[in-house]
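Example for reference:
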Amino acid sequence: MEQLGTLYFFCGKMGAGKSTKSKQMANEKRAVLLSEDEWLSSLYPNQITTFEDYLKFSVQIKPLVKKYVQNILSVGTDVVMDFPGNTQKQREWLVGIATEINATHQLVFLNLDKEQCLRQIAKRSKEQPERAAFDTEAMFIHVTKFFETPEASEGLNILEFSGKE
């Protein structure tokens, strides 16, 4: 039987370090890294100005991304997806990408508290001024309302980091 790649994806509140950890993991695993932010900004330049815009365009790219990731996994290459897995529905979609083709998956849960996330958001908005409009405490509070802690009952292979490592 052909060896399939493993799909790695992330869960963590805004500012938990999902993008940083995804880049690090892709390097460690010698995996293909896919960033939702990169796809969206390339496909829809200057069109995402609100959270609602993000949601609309995010849904539009999912079928293409799914097929693309399955093709990569099917040739035995690992994929690290810097796409949010912060709700049960998002995680269901991500797990489905792997399970539909009998590939394995790993959810990396960055379980940081509010203060840790807000510190990282403040730092990021200084380092990346183009993100300052989105990287606010108000946006953190808004987005965190949708966050759902991952549960083993979802059929997930969870690797958890508390940020204190």
About this structure: The radius of gyration is 16 Å. The chain is about 45% helix and 15% strand. The mean pLDDT is 92. Residues 6-161 form a domain with the Rossmann fold fold (CATH 3.40.50.300).
